[in-house]
Every structure is written in structure tokens, then in C-alpha cells.
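Bug #2210: C-alpha cell dump truncated for Leucine-rich repeat-containing protein 20?
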Amino acid sequence: MAEAVANVARRVNATVEEEKDTLDLSNCKLISFPDGVFRVLNSVAEKIHIVTLADNEMKGVTSKFFKTFTQLRELDLHGNVITKLPDVVGELEHLTSINLANNKLSVLPLEVNTIGLCLLLISPTDVPMEKLQAMPALKCINLKSNPLDNNLLTAIQQFPQTFEIQTTTDN
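Reproduced locally. Full output below:
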């Protein structure tokens, strides 16, 4: 546990000291976003555009996270156990890419439809297809590393918007 805490502290301090626009807390055994990190990053949160919280044990992401990182462009949450996202995620007007693959999502907030998301990475069982149809700016659905069946691909290809669909067979 102490090693995991030290790892998070090192990565957060590097982000602050080096004035990075990226915060990578992947593989840190996090079950939630640490409150102490909010305090440390307070002065630089507006400069952070990419946050990676992949491959942790997070069950959710709080509204506080999305209200703190308002300039977020890319968010990687794959490989957690997230069951839902707060509605405030729809207020991230700069967010263009979100990776939610390999989580426990059953629903996306309605507000996600209103942002200019152009890349969504999900497990196909995570989100109902009608949610994806309601995302007018969505240009790419990445289904890599997911079990695909022909019914899913056919359903996506019937959407009114044109998607680039990336699968395990793509290079």
C-alpha cells in the first residue's frame, strides 16, 4: 500500500514540477481519485488536458473530478469497475476522447450526447446502441479487444452518422 501511495505522489509531483499537460495514474491500485491529489494539482488543473486512470480498481469518478479538470481533452478510464459517470461529464466542452472499455457501465449520462466527443472506446455490452446514435459529433468507435458479433457491427453501420469502426482486425 505504501508503495502505491508513493507511486501516486511521484507521478503527481512530476506533473506539477514539470508543468505537464498530462496526468498518468494508471496501474496505481486506486479505488477512487485521491482527495489529496486535488489539493496538490489545484494550481495546475486548468493546464491538464489528458488524464489516464486506466487499470485501477475505481468504482466511479466523482463530480469533483470533472469540475476540477475542466480543460480535459482526453480521459482514459479503461480497465476499472466503473458502473456510471456523473451527469457533470457533459459539461466538459473540450473532451474529445474517452476510453471506458472494460468497465461495468450500463448507462452513459444523457449529457454526454451534448459534448463534441469524437472518439469513444467502450466494450460493446457497456452502452445501449441508441446512446451512440444520439452523439452527433462521434466519428470513431473503437471496439478493439472486445468480443464482436455481426449483429453489433450491423447495428452500428445502420446509424445515420458515418463512423470509423476500429476492431481487432484493423491495423
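Output looks complete on our side. The two ends are 38 Å apart (CA to CA). Marking as cannot-reproduce; reopen if the truncation happens again.
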